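Thread: quick sanity check before group meeting

JM: Hey all, I'm pulling together slides for Thursday and realized we never actually wrote out the predicted structure for the chain we discussed last week. Dropping the sequence here so it's in one place. If anyone has concerns about the input, flag it before I start.
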Amino acid sequence: METLTIYTYANCDTCRKAVKWLRAHDLAFNERPIRDTPPNPSELRTMLTACDGELRKLFNTSGRDYREQKLGEKLPAMKPAAALALLAANGNLVKRPFLLGAGVALVGFNEAGWCAALLTK
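JM (edit): ok, ran it. Output follows.
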């Protein structure tokens, strides 16, 4: 399998669990700090497709930046290109962990989902 790229935040318990899970299953990955180097628009479009076009699934809806910008109110009317540009410019807004690889795009950590996507190939 091609090396995976995982975007994480160091203080995120879920991100630490995901990285620990990847290591426990001997899966090669590159880790990137999501706040310093957010996913680029192309990566975000890939994830959006994997999420069946549901923009909300890409957002860290429990984060302070999301609440302060009132994105819960704005997101339903937002064009996808504008939402992706916002995410690409502010890693705090991106739901994490954010994992991409050949034929795989996962946002958030769900062990059963990650097993199905990464261990059955």
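AS: nice. The beta strands are 4-8, 29-33, 98-101, 104-107. The mean pLDDT is 95.
JM: adding both to the slides.
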